[in-house]
Design a protein that fits this description.
The chain is of the alpha+beta class and about 250 residues long. It has two domains: about 15-55, no CATH class; about 70-249, no CATH class. The protein has four helices and eleven strands; from the N terminus they run βββββββααββββαα. It has helices at about 100-105, 120-125, 195-200, 215, and strands at about 15-20, 25-30, 35-40, 55, 70-75, 80, 85-90, 150-155, 160-165, 170-175, 190. The strands form three sheets. Strands 3-2-1-4 form a four-stranded mixed beta sheet, with no helix packed on it. The chain has a four-stranded antiparallel beta sheet with strand order 5-6-7-11, with no helix packed on it. A three-stranded antiparallel beta sheet has the order 8-9-10.
Length: about 250
Amino acid sequence: MDATVFKTSDAEYWWSSDSHATDPTRVWVTNAGGGIGPHPKSETVSAGGNKRYHARCVRSGIKVEKLISAFTDNGDGTATDLRTGLVWQQQPSDPLTWEEALAYAERLALAGHDDWRMPHIKELRSLNDDQVVNPSLNRSGFPGSAPMETWSSTTLFNQPERAWTVDFAFGIASYRRQDREIAGSLCARGLSQSDHGLCRQFRGCPGGAGLDRRRLHGGLRAGGHVGIAHRRWWDLPARGHCSRPRAAR
């Protein structure tokens, strides 16, 4: 959480409004470390448990229905998320370590494109459908998918040897050591709508094609968080536009 905008507190967890698809006694929460998972209602101090759960309310002029992903199957092994604008690989890779997953995205050529990248954790979690399980992937965009844990490009802030994952059996967001082989990688191309605002400040980046893909999937190791969601301003090209810099390995 951005401490320059939100005051810090002793809260450990924050409630969402969504119950688990198969267990109404559990509710989806996010924790102080950034993880997402379904927890028993009885865990909170007010219910006799020992964990501090807080609420953070939100309001918006956008209908909630507009925030739910809608996919178009492109018929070429990819699907487009009509909400974010991202194009997704429909079938995951074989089991990979995190570094192998980065390399896999670098060399992926699919549906006539070779600008694929590993998604950051917010993009990856956006594929989850909290109303279904096993798998919890959106069924219209990923028909026939099996439950799987998938890498994101985002490393853990204070443990850069670990990276965030989403387990699409239920949609739990957690983290693993980067040297562990898990189910695989789902690659994306383009910029999500939330990332276009940053690009506009640098005059361009249509579809994200002008950004260095190592930066997009977290090629910069130092400093913990990587990927679009956590990139730093100084990681962008210094000339004030999104031209492709020289590749750095």
